[in-house]
Design goal:
InterPro entries: AA-permease/SLC12A_dom (IPR004841), Amino_acid_permease_CS (IPR004840). It is a multi-pass membrane protein. The chain has about 525 residues and is mostly helical. It is about 65% helix and about 5% strand. It contains 25 helices and two strands. It has helices at about 10-20, 20-25, 35-45, 50, 55-60, 65-90, 95-105, 105-135, 145, 150-165, 170-200, 210-215, 225-230, 230-235, 245, 255-265, 265-285, 295-300, 310-340, 360-375, 380-415, 430-445, 450-460, 460-485, 530-535; strands spanning about 505-510, 520-525.
Length: about 525
């Protein structure tokens, strides 16, 4: 029979958790409000993966792409609902890394944190380079830009975005608000114009509607395998949706604001992603699109709107800037959380007077700066492998969210936690379903030869690197965990194993004369894994 927990009250649980994990958010300022968070939630999943990458994926998979976006969007929503419940349980800027620590121990937090940092570090390299290329595109209108060295442009972009991130979380919030607003307005304009043309026809009189799909090979013109292989790229297009979890430690009334933002995600996915891709298929044959041009530019150019190119190029630059900005913000907070536990350098835990974790931000920025120079000498295929490694980091983060939520639900059923009224639907069934989906994406990546296969092959190098890294930091991690043992309350976190699940709390009144103070005594339950853990 499963060991039952203490069934303590929700208010007491929140206070214990707040005290236990206070070091992760100490020094941060709650500078984000509902207005900023709503727009961050909208814009975090709308990036270059849609504005630029959708063209190449349409070329490969055909009209079935809108179905793939719907499927991946559904699982993205399930992941966000799991994250939302964890945020209501305990808001933390450490996000899923902090939850991995709470439910699975320090090793899990160490692995998930560094993989997530790798994701955004690789993305920062790509974003900085992409922005420079996008700006150079305007060289056809300006000789100054045409002659300007691309690497200097990339360097300027990195310095500018890093500098703005260093000011305060409020500046980050405002930047993301306006970046997201530009992206959303661009999509809304396209949706309005596209729907109008589908109903009333285009100025050129070209064929529109579902007959375009039927007359050009149907939903799967190239077959099912090319469409399935594109799934990994679609998953990467949704990278960033988990950003709302990282903002929770710096959001006012996060327990109320974040669930409201997450609840509207499914509608945004349906309208902006699925709706946009479906409209693109109804306006032009899928063969009209390519990986070298934004599909939105392709459409507007087809109806004679010459200004579409420069305007959409500016929107794509905005999307890339937003991604770089969000990546620096997110990794700064994640690395700060890890530094507090000893699994990242102490430098990553340093804060400015305005509560900005500049150490973690500068670590990511350093990789981006190195990437500015390296991308000119790295072969194109190797650079694609780097981007696929970023996709692996995204999936590792999503898996950490799902696994943490699954463990949380399991322990809540045993009485160790009180689940909030805001809950992920049909858990833990949806947790298992999401894990199966992520495993399927990994298999599809493996059969995508040569890039996907080489990516998974090269990712095996991360295993010895992470193992060596853990050996180097585990002494510090365990020392910090040992200091916490005297103040863990009902929810201890140790380095060796997930201890929450192996402790039972007995509440008893103090026997001191005249004392009515309630204390917690910890009674350790035998752990079948303790012998193995002590050897690690």
């Amino acid at each position: 029979m499963a060991e039952q927990g203490p069934h303590i009250g929700a208010a007491e649980e929140r206070q214990i958790l707040k005290e236990r994990f206070n070091d992760e958010t100490a020094g941060f300022h709650q500078g984000l409000g509902a207005r900023q968070l709503q727009m961050i939630a909208i814009g975090s999943a709308i990036g270059t993966g849609l504005f630029l990458g959708a063209g190449g994926r349409l070329e490969q998979a055909g009209p079935s792409l809108f179905i793939l976006y719907a499927i991946c969007g559904f699982f993205g929503y399930l992941i966000l609902r799991s994250l939302g419940e964890l945020v209501v349980h305990r808001p933390s800027s450490g996000s899923f890394v902090s939850y991995s620590r709470e439910f699975y121990g320090e090793k899990a937090a160490y692995v998930s944190g560094w993989l997530y940092w790798l994701n955004w570090a690789m993305t920062a390299v790509a974003d900085a380079t992409a922005i420079a290329i996008y700006i150079k595109w305007f060289g056809q209108y300006s000789q100054f830009l045409a002659d300007f060295p691309q690497w200097i442009l990339a360097l300027i972009v990195v310095i500018l975005v890093v500098s703005l991130n260093m000011v305060s979380v409020k500046v980050f919030g405002e930047l993301e608000f306006w970046f997201s607003l530009i992206k959303v307005l661009a999509l809304v304009i396209f949706l309005i114009v596209g729907v109008f043309f589908v109903i009333f026809g285009t100025p050129t009189g070209s064929e529109v509607g579902f007959s375009l799909i039927q007359d050009n090979g149907g939903l799967l013109p190239a077959g099912i395998l090319p469409a399935l292989i594109v799934v990994q790229g679609v998953v990467f297009a949704y990278a960033g949706i988990e950003l709302v979890g990282t903002t929770s430690g710096e959001t006012r009334n996060a327990e109320k604001v974040i669930p409201r933002a997450i609840n509207t995600v499914i509608l945004r996915i349906a309208v902006f992603y699925v709706g946009s891709v479906l409209l693109l298929c109804l306006l032009l044959p899928y063969t009209a699109y390519s990986a070298t041009e934004s599909p939105f530019v392709t459409f507007f150019s087809s109806i004679g709107v010459g200004a579409a190119g420069p305007i959409m190029q500016l929107v794509v630059i905005t999307a890339a800037l937003s991604s770089l900005n969000a990546g620096l913000y997110s990794t700064g907070r994640i690395m700060h959380s890890m530094a507090q536990a000893g699994s990242a350098p102490k430098f990553a835990g340093k804060l400015t007077n305005s509560g900005v974790p500049f150490g973690g931000i500068l670590m990511t920025a350093g990789v981006a700066v190195l990437g500015v120079g390296l991308n000119f000498v790295v072969p194109e295929q190797a650079f694609e492998i780097v981007l696929n490694l970023a996709a692996l980091g995204t999936m590792a983060g999503w898996a950490a969210i799902t696994l943490s939520h699954k463990k949380y639900v399991s322990m809540a059923r045993q009485g160790f936690y009180n689940r909030p009224t805001y809950r992920a639907p049909l858990a833990p069934f949806t947790n298992w379903l999401t894990l199966a989906f992520l495993a399927g994406v990994m298999v599809l990546m493996a059969v995508d030869y040569p890039v996907g296969t080489l990516t998974l092959g090269s990712s095996l190098l991360l295993i010895p690197i992470l193992m060596i890294g853990w050996i180097m930091v585990r002494g510090r991690v365990r020392a910090i965990a040992a200091e916490r043992e005297g103040f863990t309350g009902a929810f201890p976190v140790l380095a060796k194993r997930p201890v929450v699940s192996v402790f039972r709390v007995g509440r008893e009144n103090s026997t001191g004369a005249g004392s009515t103070t309630s204390t917690a005594s910890l009674h350790q339950v035998p752990n079948p894994h303790s012998e193995r853990d002590n050897n690690n």
